[in-house]
Design brief:
The protein is of the alpha+beta class and 88 residues long. It has helices at 20-33, 46-53, 57-69, and strands at 42-43, 73-76, 80-83. Strands 1-3-2 form a three-stranded antiparallel β-sheet. Strand 2 (73-76) and strand 3 (80-83) form a beta hairpin. Helix 1 crosses helix 3 and helix 2 crosses helix 3 (57-69).
């Protein structure tokens, strides 16, 4: 059964170099690589993560799409977004 993990992605800021979505992508990769996000962990919804990070839903959606393209996460309609077993 998937486990819901808290994401400690740190602040996402326009004052930091790089696009906001890329900051999210990099943070998720860092968490997966460090083993703090285990395979099959459930990631927050677009809306929940956007509220937590104080960014737009579109920014989170773009980050998740990039992570999915890179094979780090996968989405299941009606179930959520998960860390892929081989992610990193």
């Amino acid at each position: 059964m998937p486990t819901r993990m808290s994401l400690a992605l740190g602040p996402v800021s326009a004052a930091v170099p790089g696009a906001l979505y890329q900051q999210i992508v990099d943070a998720v990769k860092r968490e997966v690589g460090a083993g703090r996000l285990a395979p099959n962990s459930v990631l927050p919804s677009f809306r929940v993560l956007a509220e937590e990070l104080l960014v737009s839903v579109i920014t989170v959606k773009r980050a998740y799409e990039e992570l999915e393209r890179e094979g780090i996460i996968y989405r299941r309609v009606g179930l959520g977004t998960f860390v892929r077993r081989s992610g990193a």
